[in-house]
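Dear Dr. H.,

I hope your travels went smoothly. While you were away I took the liberty of generating a structure for the chain from your last submission, since the lab meeting agenda had it listed for discussion. I wanted you to have the full record in hand beforehand rather than looking at slides cold. The sequence, exactly as received, is reproduced here:
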Amino acid sequence: MIEQFSGKVALVTGGSRGIGRAVALKLARHGCDVAVVYHNSHEEAEAVCDAIRGMNRRAIAIQADVSDPEIVAEIFAAFRQQFDHVDFVISNAATGVLKPALELSQKHWRRCLETNALALNFLAQQAVPIMPSGGRILAISSLGASRAIPQYAFIGASKAAMESLVRSLAQELGPRGIRVNVVSAGVVDTDALKHFPNREQLLEEFAKRAPAGPTLTPDQVADAVYLLCLPEAAMITGHTLVVDAGFCISG
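The corresponding predicted structure, in token form, is as follows:
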């Protein structure tokens, strides 16, 4: 395998499970050393790091809550003990409560916004000073940023805010050689989807309406992240790349 990213370093939040895990492993397979940031899943994060080390890459697991800017600063302090620069920052950690909008509180809103949107800015603030040769900052979004999904109101709104923030960051950081983009995933059957009360319905509707295939895997979302990290994607910035097997074009 050609190691496209030999010598590169990635930091992936929410990297212990699901899409984040798939992204961390994908980048490592192509040459990256990886910092896996996780919230609660210590054993899973260490397992990802062990797999990356098995590829002869460096890997560290960092436990943190990315919604707090002071803690994000601590993430990068721990990161800099092992690495002197970062090339790829993947903001994947997310949270939210699945309830009707009228049942949600200010506390729910703040938690969603801080973790799903503001964390991207906190990460960028810390990453940019150690991206001397440019790099990529990528955020993982979902179709709820632009479509109404039952019981997804605050999560979707926070993802929409994050996508807007990406456009502003892309404009600000472009002259530094830093490209900022979004990968918006369709219905992916991860652990997170198990919390949806209408999980089976979502999977069935996706299978019926997705012309490119009945299922979407975390690895396929990670493939899109990989594509945006390639040198050939240097002129793509401020963009939301939808990876949904064509679900959204089918009604």
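Two observations you may find useful: The longest helix spans residues 106-127. Helices lie at 18-29, 42-53, 69-80, 106-127, 153-173, 199-209, 218-229.

With kind regards,
E. W.
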